[in-house]
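Sample 3 of the quickstart, ligand KG4:
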Amino acid sequence: MNITILGIETSCDDTSAAVIRDGVLLSNVIAGQAVHEAYGGVVPELASRAHQQNIIPVVSEAIKRAGIDKSELSAIAFTRGPGLLGSLLVGTSFAKGFAASLQIPIIEVNHLQAHVLAHFIKTSLDDDRHPKFPFLCLLVSGGNSQIIKVLAYDYMEVIGQTIDDAAGEAFDKCAKVMGLGYPGGPVVNRLANEGNPRAFSFNKPRIPGYDYSFSGLKTSFLYTLRDALKENPDFIGQNMADLCASLQATVVDILMDKLRKAANDLGMKEVAVAGGVSANSGLRDTFCEHAEKYGWNIYLPPNAFTTDNAAMVAITGYFKYLGSDFCPMDAVPFARVQL
Ligand code: KG4
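Result:
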């Protein structure tokens, strides 16, 4: 019998629903929320209201695009955390109500685990390129920067993580200072392609082990602009591409220095990247260079699975379904939860 999972993702500002059958993606619908652009960041109250408006049309569309009837669903997987509580409540409550009406089980999904397992989404029946266990995964998003040793679908060890800001936050905050809007990461990436990555140098952290820190880079970036603007009020506009390229190169260097150290120390050559920042072309190019230079087998997710999406929730739900790992109807979401 087929196993057909509906995944629901509402942890931040994207409402998403996806259908996966026996590990193969049938549909993945994402509704973004433009309402936050005017505020330069996600406004939690507005995010939960937008999820409330979007959830039914997005789920209906996902089921329609999958070409199935809702009666064919085996279970509903939903993001339980981490994320914004008001946003998580919308997806959690919807999953419970829908599952109760269909008399099928619900499956709770950890958002961070889902980002890692996005590598196992099959886009067709013969798609079998995925990392082999154990592998290292660099998880880089707006809220997280972690190096994870992945031993199995349900066994992951965080061996390094940021002690302050995440890599995506560093991109977004520096972009905001340059007046580039929110989220700034993709804009910085686009402008960086036209600039010189060595035009400016910014501070890199010196912390032991595999942990990250991005707050020093943010301050260093801010001070560079502050000092230069005193001399030349048009400094940002005149140097935008070089600033973006140098910022991106510094973030990528910080990320890869620790990842390379971890891979080397642990003797691991299966290396993946996941999360919103994994869409960054500078980071992807550097992964490819590392594959050549150090013999890594690298896994770069398709762009559609880098930022928040329900396909990754559905695939995680699929693996949990195989292990009969269901959750009770009184489950509540968690804003903060570890991997
Ligand atoms: O994983 P994600 O969608 O949301 C969570 O934080 O969970 O990641 C969003 C982050 C934002 O900080 C955004 O600026 C960053 O990913 N991002 C990028 C790029 N695309 C998205 N950062 C750098 N380059 C990109 N191309």
